[in-house]
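QA checklist item 7 of 12: single-chain prediction sanity check.
[x] sequence parsed
[x] length recorded as 562
[x] structure emitted
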Amino acid sequence: MAQDSVGLSSDYQFWIQKLSVWKQASTLETQQDTCLYLPQFQEFLRQMYEALKEMDSNTVIERFPTIGQLLAKACRNPFILAYDESQKILIWCLCCLINKDPQNSGESQLNSWTRGLLSHILAAFRSDIKEVDLFTQGLGYAPADYYPGLLKNMVLSLVSELRENHLNGFNTQSRMAPERVRSLSRVCVPLVTLPDFEPLVEALLTYHGQEPQEVLWPEFFGAVNEAFLLKKICLPVSAVLCLWLRHLPSLEKAVLHLFEKLVSSERNCLRRIECFMKDSLLPEAACHPAIFRVVDEMFRYALLETEGAPEVLAAMQVFTRCFVEALEKENQQPKFALKTYFPYASPSLVMVLLQRPKDIPQGLWHRPLKRISEMLKEIVEDETQGSSGGPFENWFLLAHFGGWADIAAEQLLTSVGDAEPPEALLWLLAFSSSPGDGPQQRAQTMVEVKAVLSHLGRLLRSPTLSAGNLLAAAEESREGDPRPPACQQLTRRLLLNFLLWAPGGRAMARDVITLMARTDEIMHEIVGFLDQTLYRWDHLGVDAPGSRKLARELLAELRGQA
């Protein structure tokens, strides 16, 4: 706590010097400096309030003798009053100075002075012409009496001028000078969260002049993006698209903001992840290939950094699903070739992966699965193929549409015991679970998967099916399992599918899962599998009431134990 006090005192001296320099932000240089430091100053005010609210007014004056100077200068700076929540926090700080039971004339005078500042703040943007005059001058208008109607007309006039500027193109006689557009964006930095200024913010974002370089202030883009991410302003998708196309740091920050929300949200809940995705507007904005490529690259790095964490993989698949839905909604005729979204992939493979399983009769799902497997195998195992990327690139493409691999696993389990499992589906599962394996390792994985399926088929016909027998089929009960981790996960995935689809498996699903979930890691893996399965079934409209009911019950029980 003492360390915090020392830090606050140091910051206090810094900001009181800054406020003295800023005065009333009357020059271009001080205005620029004020706009640059507004977020940090607001955070300082918030920390100051947290300290002041724990003290009585006498202690405040004793601890910070010049607190009145600091607050008075802040209250008379229109940029500070206009920025985000600064006005509200200043009011909180001033309320801490008021002595509810003044004992002498000094305390009464302090109360009177504080109430005067509070009145000033509350009236500042309604009747104080001198402060408003700064904004009208900055916007290029002569001083005038300030009324809400004047502000509205001023904003509409500027919006109209910007739009005419856009329509007139090279007609320079009617165009707004680039310097004035830049000035507008600078003046708007502290005002972006005010509802009256939203039309002007949108008009600036969608403004496109003929200048070879960006004319809007980078700080303007940053302030708008921050306000949008924190839900302090509402913008149409077209304006957000312009923001992210014109300012790469804002797009990167938006993706990182989404990642932070996903990390802090409930683990293994794809419905919530889907809500976060759509709310972020990133899938809609990604219909523009430039934005899709940036978001996709950030998912790629996240997968590499986390060594293919299931949560990151699932989030990327949800993003892809939302992106494809937005693409289909926006484009009856595609505006961009698929190659622009997946430049390293085979276009014909992308076309097959983009097929929606729900648009194909369930009895015919084996056809696209076989085609996907054959095309991937040809690309991955033919070393002469250099144009379509290596194993990782093709696995990364398949991972976007991970539902196909999940369907392949289900197809193998629903037909277990009826016939030999199709080689194409075995190869697809082996590749999706461990893309780094070579052909020989992948062939060995296929042999082991085939053995598991054969064992499960025999158990399905056995009159003495038990949890122990099922675990033995997947070799889950043997200590020192020599299988690689990816192969172990694949066999667990097959066994879980068996529990959901086979009538005998459903009867003992709880007992088997209790024995399987030896560690928290495997428990989370099972929860993730159930959540993803239900999420996919909902989107596919899979009609399996018994399996659905069991999966929901198991998911609820396991989440309660986690």
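[x] summary fact logged: Residues 28-52 form the longest helix (25 residues).
[ ] second reviewer sign-off
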